[in-house]
């Protein structure tokens, strides 16, 4: 399970939870402008925008899970099993493998308008990265500072949706998720008043009762509703610290704790990392399952005209501030 969200205060933020039973050894990866990006059916791109995000680097190629470019355009890939359908190659189309989509769009677009133009010729093809890393079923949220869209390649073809909520989870398809919100249109951040019956004296006994009925389970349909409610009702100051705190809290409302959702024989789904990127300033913040301290990597501190990938291992061990010099026991 996974969730992606956008958040906006003074700056714009794009974040995600990566939920899996175990890691692929992903890293915070910067692809500078002159790193040659080969596309299997669309040639070699020698110059492109610089990109920061989380990727598995395999055979020298950045396999991004989510990323933002130096212009603030962002994309996250989320599981979409049973619905994602990638196609055979087609003439007169841009034939792009799913693992190439993030660098292909972020390398050349600055906004959703530019993405929309490229999507008219896009054909996501059934081409795996390697035998060890086969095709995986994904759909994507793509955002700039003014909006978001959802991209799904399904049996009927490529579906491009405006995403006015700025949230994406997993199954079912996005049009269902949007319609499903209608079931919750009575939820409110305010204290509810009695509409049950004028014949009864009913009063709220607790704050938060306006959101009674907000689904608390871990399914992707429920996480979509919960993340949407939390995000759309979010209040925070506009400073960097207040903004990223709120963005991490929104994602915290749909985080997965190890043990609550079994993933077959692989173990239990849990949030391996949570990220929140300030897309205006290229600051990629993250926490991991065991390290609740926020770590930040700054795109603009790297040599962006270089041709070498820059890779930072994610800091995974818990970091505790020892306020009075205490020594935690093992
Ligand atoms: C599984 C990940 C998404 C997490 C998620 O949505 N979980 C939900 C599970 S469920 O539906 O609710 O069951 C996705 C996001 C990005 C994906 C990775 C990226 O696409 C990059 C490469 C692409 C290669 O083809 C496969 C390995 C891979 C390294 C992918 C492995 C896996 O599919 C990742 C890590």
TrEMBL record:
<dbReference type="Pfam" id="PF02275">
    <property type="entry name" value="CBAH"/>
</dbReference>
<dbReference type="InterPro" id="IPR029132">
    <property type="entry name" value="CBAH/NAAA_C"/>
</dbReference>
<protein>
    <recommendedName>
        <fullName>choloylglycine hydrolase</fullName>
        <ecNumber>3.5.1.24</ecNumber>
    </recommendedName>
</protein>
<feature type="domain" description="Choloylglycine hydrolase/NAAA C-terminal">
    <location>
        <begin position="2"/>
        <end position="312"/>
    </location>
</feature>
<dbReference type="InterPro" id="IPR047711">
    <property type="entry name" value="CBAH"/>
</dbReference>
<keyword id="KW-0443">Lipid metabolism</keyword>
<dbReference type="InterPro" id="IPR052193">
    <property type="entry name" value="Peptidase_C59"/>
</dbReference>
<comment type="similarity">
    <text>Belongs to the peptidase C59 family.</text>
</comment>
<dbReference type="InterPro" id="IPR029055">
    <property type="entry name" value="Ntn_hydrolases_N"/>
</dbReference>
<comment type="pathway">
    <text>Lipid metabolism; bile acid biosynthesis.</text>
</comment>
<keyword id="KW-0378">Hydrolase</keyword>
<dbReference type="GO" id="GO:0006629">
    <property type="term" value="P:lipid metabolic process"/>
</dbReference>
<dbReference type="GO" id="GO:0045302">
    <property type="term" value="F:choloylglycine hydrolase activity"/>
</dbReference>
